[in-house]
Amino acid sequence: MSTQIGNQSDTVLDRQAARLAPPPMYQVVLLNDDYTPMEFVVVVLQRIFGKNEDEAARIMLKVHHEGRGVCGVYPRDIAATRVEMVRRMAQARQHPLQCVMEPAPDV
């Protein structure tokens, strides 16, 4: 028992693989100020960015000595969320800590 479909086409379409580019990445950067305690910066790096104590201290010292330090590199939405989390945590404790996101340099 076979059924035939009268409107079949003999055209075969080749599937082309969709090439998706990786999302653009952004680095989250903490900026130095003269008022935010170093201990608070270490806590921010541990809680928001998941850094261990040694890595958090290293980044905090980089911020302190060089004026800025990269906390991590993320897709845009995640980077923006982390920046907002830092802003809220600093504001809640009345610290002027600034955090920005900028396009990550190509490696």
Protein model, in words:
The protein is an alpha+beta fold and 107 residues long. The chain is built from three helices and three strands, in the order βααβαβ. It has a domain at 36-103: Ribosomal protein L7/L12, C-terminal domain/Adaptor protein ClpS (Ribosomal Protein L30, Chain: A, 2-Layer Sandwich). Strands 2-1-3 form a three-stranded antiparallel beta sheet. The termini are far apart. The mean pLDDT is 91.
CATH topology of the domain at 36-103: Ribosomal Protein L30, Chain: A
CATH superfamily of the domain at 36-103: Ribosomal protein L7/L12, C-terminal domain/Adaptor protein ClpS
Overall structural class, as computed from helix and strand content, comes to alpha+beta
| Share in helix | 40-55%
Measured distance between first and last alpha carbons:
62 Å
- From N to C, what is the helix and strand string? EHHEHE
Discrete helix count? 3
Q: What amount of the residues lies in strands?
A: 15-25%
Corresponding CATH architecture of the domain at 36-103? 2-Layer Sandwich
* Shape field: elongated
For the largest beta sheet, what order do the strands appear in spatially? 2-1-3
Number of strands: 3
Mean pLDDT across all amino acids: 91
- Rg, please? 24 Å
The gist of it:
This protein has 107 residues and is of the alpha+beta class. The chain is built from three helices and three strands; from the N terminus they run βααβαβ. It has a domain at 36-103: Ribosomal Protein L30, Chain: A (2-Layer Sandwich).
Features:
3 helices, elongated, about 110 residues, Ribosomal Protein L30, Chain: A, three-stranded antiparallel beta sheet, 3 strands, alpha+beta
